[in-house]
Amino acid sequence: VRGDVLTVSGLVRSSSDQALLVELIATDGSVAGSRLAGLVPTEKGEYHPFSVDIPYQVSAPTWVRVTVTERGGRFPRAISITTSEVLLSP
Fold first, then answer.
1. 70, 78 in Cβ contact below 8 A?
2. What's the CA gap between 73 and 83, in Å, rounded?
3. How many CB atoms lie under 10 A from the CB of residue 88?
4. Which residues have CB under 8 Å from 39's CB, separation 6+?
5. Pick the residue with more confidence: 48 or 85?
6. Contact call for residues 18 and 68 (beta carbons, < 8 A)
7. pLDDT tens-digit map of 10-24
8. Whole-prediction pTM value?
């Protein structure tokens, strides 16, 4: 991915309508970018669509893993998703 923005979108079955935390985490553990993704309200038990543009800054090509975390509730947790590494370029 070249430029300074990565678009992340998908569907999630969430127990709340709280925003999701989407992060781009480099192999050294640093966060190259993050943003909250709002959820579109749906009927209970249905999937929520989400989409978010995440600005990022890297000085050289950098491998990152996209993570999505459900926020809110007593125990914030990572949502089960399929992830892959993405190579970000300046």
1. yes
2. 24
3. 22
4. 12, 14, 17, 18, 19, 20, 48, 49, 50
5. 85
6. no
7. 888 776 667 888 999
8. 0.82
Report the 10 Å Cβ neighbour count for 58: 19
Q: What is the C-alpha separation between 11 and 86, in angstroms, rounded? A: 19
Instruction: Identify the weakest region by mean pLDDT among 3-12, 44-53, 72-81.
Output: 72-81
Q: Measured in Å, how far apart are the chain's first and last C-alpha atoms?
A: 9
CA–CA gap between residue 43 and residue 40 (Å, rounded): 10
Unique residue bearing structure tokens 């990565």 = 6
- Mean pLDDT computed over 53-78: 83
Alpha carbon 28 to chain centroid, angstroms: 18
Q: Which residue has the tokens 């009927």?
A: 43
- For residue 86, pLDDT beyond 60: yes
Whole-angstrom distance, CA of residue 37 vs CA of residue 33: 13
